[in-house]
Design goal:
The protein is an alpha+beta fold. Helices cover about 25% and strands about 35% of the residues. The termini are close together.
Length: about 375
């Protein structure tokens, strides 16, 4: 169980909710199920996306274009634009499956984007899984499994040759040494697998904790995803390119973020669509601050990897309390680790209805921040 401290604060964000002000970091967590119909085909879409809205006080268009192209087949770099266009391409929206669906073809789409690692102002790594399966034929019509790292300093998607020295690809001693290193990191249950002995040079890599994650190119026993192995930094270092070593050893340079005003314009008419930073009456969790802390403590679970490594950290989640008291638009604006961040988002999305914020006696949408400090027992 997590030992934590939490404190509820009004968010320091732009009042109109447009998120136009640069932020040091902001990861949007978008998930849901969607139904579309095109001709005689029903499309069932599930999405679980961890989308980088702001990285080092900038919107990394190169990164967002890459994500949108891999996930949605277009290069709209805002998640809302790209995802909406993707859904529109699948047909008209439906609220429920039609009663006379027996003669309809059914296609299931799954989109998943997961943060692997964020090294402040240096790099950020992701894993993408996208599948399309035809229910009638039980065949997977398409699959994307992709791991990669984005170099924040040089605004670049890092390919294999950006990460590893050329000597690793030339079939010499360095090549065989590297492949032996990969095999040694492969879980022992795969050592008797024929694919283990015919393993080819991994085609994709990404950085994690400055070490190297390798995609072995074949699926694991317990998942449709490709098997990934991790080579720690000290063991991978000799195979790194000079440019990568420079990136990892450089001092993180944080881009400046301008001052933020938390004042709402006096005398304005209340706008029920606007997201306010500060209300005359701020939102209240059911039972107050103590009940909110109890709710978080009862529901948060220490992520297994972070628990095993005895990692500690502080996450700042941001969310909107809607006019009806429901919680929406959950993001992380202060990251600790992918596991910590993900767990805080999961529990915030579980929150019961709040008493909404009010201005002039009217309920308004209000943005809030919730810092959570994780400490291993």
């Amino acid at each position: 169980m997590a030992l934590m401290a939490c404190l509820l604060l009004p968010a320091l964000c732009r009042a109109d909710g447009s998120d136009a002000r640069p932020m040091r970091y902001k990861m949007d967590y978008v998930s849901g199920a969607y139904l579309r119909k095109s001709g005689s085909t029903l499309h069932f879409v599930t999405a679980d996306l961890e989308w980088p809205a702001w990285i080092n006080a900038g919107r990394p268009q190169t990164l967002m274009n890459h994500l949108a192209a891999k996930l949605f087949g277009n290069t709209d770099y805002a998640v809302a634009d790209g995802f909406d266009r993707y859904l529109d391409s699948l047909g008209e929206p439906l609220e429920a499956v039609p009663d006379d669906d027996a003669g309809l073809n059914k296609v299931y789409h799954s989109l998943e984007l997961k943060l692997v690692e964020y090294s402040t102002a240096r790099y950020i790594s992701f894993r993408i899984m996208a599948t399309e399966r035809n229910a009638k034929s039980h065949q997977v019509r398409s699959m994307v499994h992709h791991i990669f790292t984005y170099d924040i300093v040089n605004d670049k998607i890092l390919g294999t040759t950006d990460l590893l020295r050329k000597i690793c690809f030339e079939g010499n001693v360095a090549y065989y040494d590297f492949m032996n290193l990969v095999r040694l990191q492969t879980p022992s249950e795969y050592w008797e697998d024929e694919r283990f002995y015919t393993m080819k040079f991994p085609q994709e890599f990404c950085l994690m904790n400055d070490g190297l994650v390798c995609d072995l190119g074949f699926t694991s026993y317990d998942s449709p995803a490709n098997l990934l192995v991790f080579i720690p930094y000290k063991e991978a270092y000799d195979y790194y390119t000079k440019a990568l070593k420079k990136l990892l050893q450089a001092e993180a340079r944080l881009n400046p973020v301008g001052p933020v005003s938390t004042q709402e314009s006096a005398g304005e008419a209340v706008d029920t669509t606007k997201v306010y930073n500060v209300a005359e009456e701020n939102p209240v969790f059911q039972g107050g601050q103590d009940e909110m802390i109890k709710f978080m403590t009862d529901n948060l679970r220490f992520p297994p990897i972070e628990e095993m490594l005895e990692i500690k950290g502080r996450v700042v989640a941001q969310f909107v309390v809607e006019r009806d008291g429901t919680v929406s638009t959950v993001s992380v604006v202060g990251p600790a680790s992918p596991g910590f961040d993900r767990e805080v988002v999961r529990v915030v999305k579980m929150m019961p209805r709040w008493t909404p914020g009010k201005i002039g006696g009217q309920s308004v949408r209000t943005r809030m921040s919730l810092p959570i400090t994780w400490k291993p027992q």
